[in-house]
Amino acid sequence: MALALSVPMLVVAVGALGADGREVWAHLASTVMPEYLRNSVVLAAGSGALALVIGVASAWLVATRDFPGRRLFEWSLVLPLSVPAYIAAYTYAGMLDVTGPVQRTARALVPSLSDTFVAIPVMRIETMVVIFALVLYPYVYLLSRAAFLGQSRTALEAAWTLGHGGASAFWRVALPLARPAIAAGVSMVVMEVLNDYGAVSYYGVTTFTTGIFRSWHALGDLDAAIRLAAILMVFVLAVLALERSQRGRRRVDDTRGTGHRPLLRQRLRGWRAWAAFAVCFAPLLFGFLIPVAQLALWTVRTAGDVVDASYLRLVANSFGLATVAALLCVALALLLVYAGRLDRGRTVSAANRAVVLGYSIPGAVIAVGIIVPFGWIDRTVDAFAEATLGVSTGLLLSGTLFALVFAYAVRYTAVALLPLEAGFERQCRNLDDASRCLGEPPLATLWRVALPLLRRTLVAAAILVFVDVMKEIPLTLSLRPFNFDTLATRAYQLAVDEQVAESANAALVIIAVGLLPVLGLDRLLARGRG
Amino acid sequence: MSGEVDVAFGRPGAVPAETTGTLGAAASPDGHAAARPAALEVRGLTKRYRRGDRPALDGVWLDVEDGEILTLVGESGSGKTTFLRLVAGLERADAGEVVIRGRTVCDERTFTPPEHRGASLVFQDYALFPHLTVERNVGFGLRRLGRAERAERVREMLELVGLLGFERRYPHELSGGQQQRVALARALAPRPAVLLLDEPFSNLDRALKARLRQEVAALIRATGTTAVFVVHDPDDALAIGDRIAVLRDGRLVQLGKPREILDSPCGPYVAGFFGVGEVVGEVEF
Amino acid sequence: MARNRRIAIGLAAAVVLGGCGAGGAGDAVVNVYSHRHYEADQQLFARFTELTGIRVNVVTASADELITRLENEGKNSPADILITVDAGRLHRAKEKGLLQPIRSEVLETSIPATYRDPEGYWFGLTRRARVVIYDPTRVKPGELSTYEDLADPKWKGRILSRSSGNVYNQSLLASLIAANGEEAAERWARGVAANLARPPAGGDTDQIKAVAAGVGDVAISNTYYFGRLLSSSDPEERRLAERLAVFFPNQDGRGAHVNVSGAGVTTSSKNVANAIRLLEFLASEEAQRIFSEANLEYPVNPRVEPAEILQAWGEFKADTLNLARLGELNAAAVAIFDRAGWR
Fold this sequence. Notes:
With about 525 residues, chain A is mainly α. Chain A contains 23 helices and two strands. Chain A has helices at about 1-20, 20-30, 35-65, 70-75, 85-95, 100-110, 125-150, 155-160, 165-195, 200, 210-220, 220-245, 270-305, 310-345, 345-355, 365-390, 400-425, 430-435, 440-455, 455-470, 475-480, 485-495, 500-530; strands at about 65, 265. The two termini of chain A are about 40 Å apart. Chain B has about 280 residues and is an alpha/beta fold. Chain B has eight helices and ten strands. A six-stranded mixed β-sheet of chain B has the order 6-7-8-3-9-10, with helices on both faces. A four-stranded antiparallel β-sheet of chain B has the order 2-1-4-5, with helices on one face. In chain B, helix 3 (about 145-160) crosses helix 4 (about 175-190) and helix 4 (about 175-190) packs parallel to helix 5 (about 205-225). Chain B starts with about 35 loop residues before the first strand and ends in an 11-residue tail after the last helix. Chains in contact: A-B, A-C.
């Protein structure tokens, strides 16, 4: 199963080895490669670090402290995830540009400025880092909050009795215990950043991914593009391996299966309460409220021109695909993770790493990795059928929704896999063992013990996949059947065509549809708490 | 010296010169010859966690009679828990055989997964399922029974451990002692061929422990269940066990009835461990 | 088990969501792979169906992705027509054997020879000129002359352009290679890169707005982006655009650089006749007018007047270089950009 999901990665790897793009390769290495490398590292490290700080800080506050608005933040902090990075990038540029609402309002309010047009240098790599962090930190937030909530009070109390008060207990106990979850979250941020194309290309920041597209599209050299993709894969593998080796053989599961007492929230007062409020409100404001407000403004201006009945179809397409993909990816990830846990060996674990790689490769490259083998299968089957039966089978796989859903599985199983792995790692192995000793075979154990205990993580994983697929562009664009549009393809195509205002309504609907499961998550959490 | 002791060191079948008993499996612990088959036979069980390390368990041979309570005692790291996990099927042995009720569940070719072994394990931390009520925890291993039958068995078990009325509680709403009894009830419910208990008293205070260990032993005897207790306190071992097996560094150094161990500890280690001065035999390790 | 489940879900999804598979053979359809995703195109396809009863199925994606898809689908590809936004990609598709030559008197008379493949593999449908948008208060009359002149140090810190990753810049440089040779083109790219007012970022529209904000004095842009600002529903955008003006370079020489958005019939096409009818319709006066008015592109059909906004900029002389050359020189242009440090 993992193998099937790894096919596109294998295509890339084999393509890279057998590639013949030596000339183009030499050219790239001597001219632009250093910059690709530098920018990619800056973006990945910068956004990863910033998302880590925002995500962990807000998760810690929400999970262990009580302050005004906490209940609201608990779920609303996830919202920025529903804002596609490229939309956020376009939105901030559009908002601050000469005809954006900021300058417009200034001109309208201050007569002396009425003729002033200022260029605010938004499109820089620094801004890009912040924007990525703002819309991607929810990965870290979601996973680390689940980890903090799952932590037993005992460990923290032990720390307190050993003389490690609030902050120290956080650094020395809570944080290390939540580490697999946090690491999973940050890896997801880093991988999203590395494979982004829409936002960085608009801001003129050249990365490995823009390089891949440049080699493929402009230089017409798919081989060189595939080599770049292979380097990106190695890069990501290295990051993952580093994290794993550093974590080492430390175990962070709850050692006490039953002595579990949930953390008691500490009530904050005075300036501390407001500081906590500010820490949680800032990412929500900049990652969600401001972009959404801007999109709403644009929508009001352009709605009459673009909204029609076909919208319902777009919503149905997006929602349907995202739902199917979410269920599929979570089911696959669950089986893969559980197989890894049973196996306790290296084979399954290595296979799972391969699946995670799918997330790090730019979607368009995965598309190639799917188009090529599927095309080959189609042609082979067709030739065989024609030779033996005298009929043409035509295209069985290419250009079907099956190909598209398969592509989503390749790309997004990792999104479900990483949180589930972290969840399983936190969960006490003795519970599994107990179930096995009571006569339940592995799958029944999964169903009766692991699933109910990991319910929150499962739902969180499904939501992540759902929201990701809602936003997905390159796979959908290049693999979809005829006349098949989604909200994301509509929004993106208008945006790249510099009709940002016109794309706003589709973007807004993406966000709105993404909200539904997030709200569901809130209710689930509320129940789980009781 | 009476009593039936299987002791072997390293090589299967090798019988050291100085043992405190004769080999033989078909006799009851109290010395009466009986035809009852052994509930659990372990032959040359060996486990090494990492290549190159000293084995955690090194060629252990022993039998447990039907209905017998065996206590496995030793210091931390002596291999007690490894022994339990190997018997339960939670780890794979590197060598040796495990036979439960005449059925080989583990040898060079066979590995029966834990769910098909009929060995129930009571975990040191109880490992109660936090998402299930007491009732459902106890009924967890009874899926093959019908609804009514299952309810009846759960009731029976809860009555046995004195927790009737606690059916709807969740594990975290119980005291440590209560949790332990739930764990015990849960493990006994499916009528295991052999019950394995991993340090069941390590989390309890002294006074409570003295009372509880008698209670637990009585409970187990009442159901006629064959049991292997892993303990680290020699007092516990002496108080509960029909026979006692002493492990040191993964090897079985003595196996016998409490009296025998106290009267003739085999070597200074065992004597020191049980706090008796007299040394009868010397064993080379 | 998981595999079966996946297939099952995939099939279920196909049934539930799809119902719109590739329209296979039959005479009532034409299947289009298009890089154009404009409302105008939707409008035109609907009109075509209305006129002929032929249904138009469309997949839009970048031309390169569509070409990869065509290659891998091979002879079973459902696509009949490939539409791109530059001649270079059409040329590439032709080289890869993905297009077939078409003879059509209607197309040959509606579309001037410069804007179609000499052998009939592809036909231009709309023209876009790459021009200079400038602020008349800061650029003296007579200061602007040619593309070549933009490399002159007098423009230091005054030029705005998007990144070289964009095909419009690539084909502009390709036209300079064709006109002046690779060495001169590289000197030019270095010169312009050194003159840029800021590192390239954003799209053409952003460059135009940056001129209005005084970041630089001139922006290199395609005509329709400026046209869109001029006809924007937002008064602020119109006000901003009205302060700026269009300059068509090289009017005394080879003419302003023009590229086309065009189409070709695929080798695998099973609806060749329908495909030709669609192309003929898109080249017709009615369709050309819609292209120009709704999307502010210049028509290829000389019998059609451009939209009013475009007419206001006046007539211009267009480079007559055969556009197939742009495709041939595209990779060389990108390599030069990389060496010149034009991001």
